[in-house]
Amino acid sequence: MQNHKDILSDKSKNDKSKDKSVLVIGGGVGGIRAALDLAESRRNVILIDKSYSIGGLMTQLDRTFPTNNCDLCTVSPHLSETTRQLHLDLQPMTQLVELTGEAGNFIATLVTEPRYIDIEKCTACGECHKHFPDAVRFTPGLDPRAPTCMRYPQATPYSFSIDMEKITDIKALQKVCRADAINAYDTPKKTRVELASVVLSVGAQLFDPAVLDNFGGGQFDNVMTGLEYERIMSASGPFQGDLVRVSDKKRPKKVAWIQCVGSRGINKADVPYCSGVCCMYALKEAIVTKERFAENIETTIFYMDMRTYGKDYELYFNRAKNDYDIRMVRSRPHSIIEDSKTKNLSITYALEEEALQKTEEFDMVVLSTGFRIPETTLDLANRLGLELNSHHFARTDHFNPVKTSKPGIYACGVIESPKDIPETIVQASAAASMAAVHLPVVIDSSGAPEIFIPERDISGEKSRIGVFVCDCGFEIGGLIKVDKLIEFAKNRKDVVVSQAVGYGCSRDSMEIIEGLIKTHNLNRVVIGGCSPRTHETKFQDLLRRAGLNKYLVEIVNLRDQDTWAHIGQPKESQDKAFKLLHAGISGVRKSRPLIDQTLPMNQNALVLGGGVTGMTAALQLANQDIKVYLVERGPVLGGLAMSIQKTIEGDDVGPFMDKLVEIVLAHKNIQVLTKSIIVDHSGIPGRFKTGIQTGIRMNYMQLSHGVTILATGALPNRPDSYGLGTHVNITTQLELDAMIEDAPEKIKTMNHVVMIQCVGSREPGNPNCSRICCQTSIKNALRIKAINPDAQIFILYRDIRTYGFYEDYYMEARKKDVKFIRFSLDNKPIVRVENDQVSVFVDDIILGRKIQIQTDYLALSTGMIADDETTEDLSMMFHLPRTADHYFLEDHVKLRPVDMSVRGFFIAGTNHSPRTIRESITQALAAAGRAQTLLAKKEIELGAAIAKVDGSKCAACLICVRSCPFSIPFINEDGYSQIDPAKCHGCGVCAADCPAKAIQLLAYEDDQILAKLDGLFGELN
Amino acid sequence: MKIFEPEIVAFCCHYCAYTAADMAGSKRISYPANVKIIRVPCTGKVDAIHIMKAFEKGADGVYVAGCLQGDCHFKNGNTRAKYRVEQVQIILGDLGWEKQRVAMINMSAGMGERFARTALEFTQTIKQLGPSPIKITHTDINQQAIRF
Amino acid sequence: MITAEQKPLNEILDYISPYDRIILVGCNECVTVCAAGGRKEVGLLASALHLNFLKHGRTVEIKEITLERQCDPEYAEELVSEIDRTDAILSMACGCGVQTIAARYNEKPVFPAVNTKFMGASVSQGIWEEKCQGCGDCLLGITGGICPVARCSKHLLNGPCGGTSKGMCEIAPDVDCAWCLIWERLKALGMEKRYEEIMEAKDFRAAGGGGPRRIIRKDLSL
Amino acid sequence: MKTESKLEKVLASGALAVTSEVGPPRGAIPERVRQKANLIKDHVDAINVTDNQTAMVRMSSWAAGVIIKQMGLDPILQMVTRDRNRLAMQSDIIGAYSLGINTMMCLSGDHAKFGDHPMAKGVFDLDSIQLVQTVQKMRDKGKFQGGADIDTPPKMFIGAAANPFADPFELRVMRLAKKVKAGADFIQTQCIFNLDKFEKYMEMVCDRGLDKKVHLLAGITPMKSAGMARYMKNKVPGMDVPDEIIKRMAGVSKEKQPEEGIKIAIESIERLKQVKGVHGFHIMAIEWEEKVPQIVEKAGLFPRPAL
To answer: Average pLDDT for residues A622-635, to the nearest whole number?
Structure first.
């Protein structure tokens, strides 16, 4: 359709910087994270996506597990950051057509399709769409043409896209565009860029079940995929967030989910692997259905194995069963039949334990479909010269899951293997970290140029307050009446503007607010929305863009602390919202412009734990010229991985570890400190001081570092179950693993081997899944079979959780006649030892009777438990939170999976949760990458909440000097207390203790707190 | 008779209790809407005057919620807060008020359930105590205030 | 410094309950330093008073003012603009401050809100100890810098009584025996001999036995 | 002879003096004073009359002293500086002397905190040493403390107390020296249980030649029970009760403990008789005055010299 008019702009010629870029392909959540990590560590990055706005699959989801947040709210801070970052060049509608050269020196040719709209000029006013409703591309699916043709309300870039073929009168179109943004002669642009490396994050598609005739072949109105169900529940979806049937727009009473549709199968349309995320999303959709719509909606999930193997996912599963009463049926239904009149659906299925087939009617059926690699990706892989595995996913290094077959190209997210959002984010950070290796170490240290307009001086101005209340889709507006809040705010003193803003954090709302600030000359802003913990920065930036000091905004937490916490109490919730909002208005009147403080960043890193994770993280940082202290409690490096012989992929762990230890020990930037324990800790993020006692003499050393990576690992579990420790032939999988390697002759003599799964896991006391055990037992079963094909192997399990491509090994084991016998928690196997003979008794559910296996060897899959003592000590020392089962708790389980709540702390490996060596390595790389983003800043931003002394009031009583937890105040030459703003930690203890009330903690001054109290109780000060 | 719905102010530290409250919300664990939070960087910032003023303005109960003992991000702000709460309890006692109207509660950031449970327990305590002595005798205060 | 402690609330309430408009005056000197009557304590007391009055259905106007130093008449002038709008003054200063205010505003009742305790020093945060009784005839030069008048429970001038035990005074196990301290100090200074000299009976006129004491600096008092 | 005091005479004769004490009643009961004095009158040379002992209000010491004097006995007027200023004390001394009392003890007194008037203001216008000085000045110079002449000065035989066991030990002899220097004629000590330590103390006293300048009467208290021994060790400030004494008391049955206590007192006197500088004994049988004769007799201090 277009004439390619090549505009070859060779970037390197114009750009004086010799720094090459990293190309990130794919603007999904993984690509965004990778691009942001690179940009934050001051690497130039180009993020391309073939779509006209970025965000990928995640932006279509209604809510994500396990927090059940509205996704838009969690992802939008990331999206807006993409346009904030100076080093990030976002190119939508762009594809890579050619890549030549090699790692460090690639040349890529990119082609950008014409948008026919100048992004810089477009304000997304919607006029073009109003007049030419057909002129815009839209996402097919259940969405009818939405009022705006953005894919979702927070679209980035915030601009329309014109389908030129449907336009006849281009002049008329240009006329309606007030911003003069229509570029009728837009053409495809071809650019050539020099690259150091590439991050591939193109994700995958979801399987389209229309090919499955037994499930209606896509013809039944009320049968849909999980994603379509998400769209129905979504506030920006086709029914504005109301859960109704497509056929009659009525609320369903019975909803069923069918798992593994198109996955884990052997039929023509099936793929053999497990998509890894469907169990959790089905549980989530069922929970949200109950939670948001009606508790009496019957929800049923048909599944084969419940694969809730992620961190705390088992608890989520238990909650679904126990708290939400979601019915779980272990069966793979073979057909759905639609009643042509009622459009109800009958599912036919069989239970393992019963011979008879059953039929049950439902109002809606959701097909949990998994990931598929599309043809376009195969082409792309071809262009890049990448090898794919048998399932068409990118083949990566077994000890480095983001490293593809081609040097300089890294993969992250679903293109590597099926995975959920947290795992994708971890891989993205890991891939970014690896990609950066190909760039020069020297980081651009020039301070970030001011990207905000100068602040307006508001001194002497009367308060002019703007109040903006976000309905957050249904999260806020669903429970309380936002219009009433707006009306209420309007009538408050000094409030000049009071307005509802759909999604307050979306680009369009933000720009509306920005505009209103400017047009009404507002000098203070109140945002009613979600928690300031997550969104304060975003709105502070908004104020800066509008030329206001960022401390003139007050965020009122109407969501997390009102509507979410008072579900089912609309009246109380509304009343509380009035009060909270009033407190916010009253409080903001007392807000003052403040200046942020900064300090130089210490460039060293402290890595705790000398296992595979710690060493990998240390090495990654050291290679970037960062001085690393690697502190290990034990006498040698290596950790738990040293006791593992082989991975399931068949790689030898020993030689890999030996090499890693050798490199780490020899590295000039790594100081290895074994036999060392942490004894004290102080400082602030970017300037930590940690005291250790090291060596046999326990000498004291103080380490100065800017960041800390926790990689202290976990412990192999050893519960007193099933006779462990009472007989030489009853051991854990670790000991079996060693025996297979060291004494194959013993394996050869075995006739029967029994393995029991979930030993000490998924039960009271340790309710979570240990994740690694299913594939460990299958790995060992296959190794035994290789040595002794005649050995009868029984694996007694509760659910087989061979997520992703581990399913291949499960299939192989079944093919090799490994017997899998399922048991339930309330009917566990019994182990007896009589006359030196180990016997296992188990109820076989399928056979319906108890069987006895006299076995030569019993291997217990005991998994891992958290190193409670270590995580407790460190959490006390560093003030870090832990989970109920004593693992470290990351800052945000989805979006910040390796960041801790205390800035400057990162976690990787099994102190996060149980995981394989491969997964630990990914996390190690990710943590190293995240640490670099912090170190790249060179300066620590301390915020403005510091204590300030009014010398005229100070009585020099020394109370502040004595009560400051950090000994910062002193009495100066002028005879009054002085507090160094660069050293103040901002706790406010001095301000509260000062008997002369001479100290105020900025941003939390007494009059501000009292004003909020006034507001809560209905008075304006 | 109208059921007494107390006004309760909770001064919550940013690091633990405020986060725990958000956590309770994100897990959709309900607690009484009577509890309204004022965020402070550390409970060590909460002055006895702030607590007193809350009562003066009409609170029926006030609590300070901070990190677990030993877990304060600023070493001992929560212990200081505990003593200040005790100081206010003494003043309330001197005035003939119930000391239980003010309390110190500790929790970690991950304890959304605890936040909700303690909010409920405190609200129940205040409901049992009834309205603040101010309200019984001086209803004008509410009439002066804005009708929400 | 002069130390003080807030009076029991009931006593304060008894004083001021007849009045509807009160000035609550703090002092930014000693009582601020010993956390008895600075701006913060003024705020706290005002709040407590409000709570009490509100409980009885009264709204009492309490004006909070903290003077730089209540015991100087010039600073006391700061209240002039408010005095006509008040019925009573409640002072959180030491007795000196209260009297200065009372003398200046003799048409208004002035009440103390603190008990003036002693001249003391801060031992550590939140702890003050009596160190001087203002006897007008300082003995510290011969007692090794430790005052037996203020710090010996019996004001003994010639050595410890028989009640001292392990260096502590008989009146309480946490009170140092001043004479043990003096002795240790004299020993450390090599001045043991000084102890053997009998200290004659003290002339208590200098300590106030001769009526209210006064200091006059002619050069300044012109 | 400085005075008419019988005690001075006994001491001057070189005999070992024996004193004991009577606590005045907490009421206007003169008979109680007489009863108590009668119990010991034949076995002692003089009787201390305590002055608001343990800071509890009692009949005034000079009034009780006069009652004893009227019985033909020899009271020792105790005077504490806690309750009176220098005017009151001097007038009381003149008054007492006028009624025949010629021996006194100058003390600072227990702190009011321990008595039944803890709210009382402790006067302490003078301390005990300054009181000794004052009495001596009245007697020897005929002048009041303030310097004015006395018409017919009171002639008091001046006593003071010493506690060899209070801390710091090294200061104890120096403090005694100070009292002697101030004008003390005799010293009564605190109860002695730790004889070893007391002997060490006396060595130091003699080394300084104080035994030549002052008469020292060793304080003896018989203990009624092991419980009392323990109480005195732990609860009474400045008291030194060795563990062996407690063990010895506890080693006998409860009924036999009083007897054992008396035995210890007697043994102590026997041993202290040998100590240089000890010129007599002051037996403080607290609420156990009836045992004083037995102790005096068994310790070989009976009969008392007739002068």
So the answer is: 95
Assess if residue B74 is contained within a domain. Answer: yes
For residue A662, the number of C-alpha atoms closer than 13 Å in the C-beta half-sphere is: 6
**Among D180, D188, D182, CA closest to D104:** D188
- Spatial distance between the Cα atoms of B99 and A396, rounded to a whole number of angstroms: 65
How many separate domains does chain A show?
A: 7
User: Considering only alpha carbons, which residue of chain A is nearest residue C67?
Assistant: A953
Q: Which of D82, D123, D130, D163 to mutate to test the interface with C (most CBs of C within 10 A)?
A: D130
Q: Are residues A81 and A41 in the same domain?
A: yes
- In chain C, % of residues over pLDDT 90: 87
Query: Does residue C154 belong to the interface with chain B, where contact is any CB pair within 8 Å?
Result: no
> D82, D108, D169, D232: best mutation site toward chain C, by most C Cβ within 10 Å?
D108
Q: Is the pLDDT of residue A788 over 80?
A: yes
User: CA-to-CA distance for A672 and D169, rounded, in angstroms?
Assistant: 59
| Closest CB to A955 among C28, C41, C124 | C28
pLDDT at A441: 73
Give the count of domains, chain C: 2
Max Cα–Cα distance, chain D, nearest Å: 61
User: Which candidate, A840, A798, A791, places its Cα nearest to that of A817?
Assistant: A791
Clarify whether residues A108 and A163 are in a common domain: no
ipTM: 0.88
* CB contact (8 A) between residue C155 and residue D110: no
Instruction: Find the domain containing C148 and state its range.
Output: 136-209
Same domain, A103 and A221: no
Alpha carbons A939 and D117: distance in angstroms, whole number: 68
Report yes or no: C124 at the A interface, CB cutoff 8 Å.
Answer: yes
- Which regions in chain C score pLDDT beneath 50? none
What is the nearest CA distance from A1011 to chain C, expressed in angstroms?
A: 15
Domain enclosing residue A501, as ranges: 465-597
Q: Does C43 touch chain A (CB under 8 A)?
A: yes
Among the candidates A894, A916, A937, a domain finishes at A937
Count of H-run helices and E-run strands, chain D: 12, 8
Residue A171 burial (CB count, 10 A): 8
SS3 B10: strand
Residue B49 lies in domain: 8-144
Is position C222 within any domain?
no
Q: How far is residue B102 CA from its own chain's centroid?
A: 7
C 190-219 residues with CB < 8 A to D: 192, 195-196, 198-201, 204
Q: Please report whether residue A97 resides in a domain.
A: yes
* 3-state SS track over A614-632: HHHHHHHHHCCCCCEEEEC
Q: Does residue C96 form part of some domain? A: yes
On whether both A586 and A618 belong to a single domain, the answer is no
Give me the CATH code for the D6-298 domain, please.
3.20.20.220
Measured in whole angstroms, the distance separating CA A980 from the mean position of its chain's CA atoms is 38
Chain C segment 20-59 residues within 8 A of B by beta carbon are 40, 43-44, 47-48, 50-52, 54-57, 59
> Which of B91, B101, B139 to substitute to test the interface with C, most C CBs within 10 Å?
B91
For residue A560, is it within any domain? yes
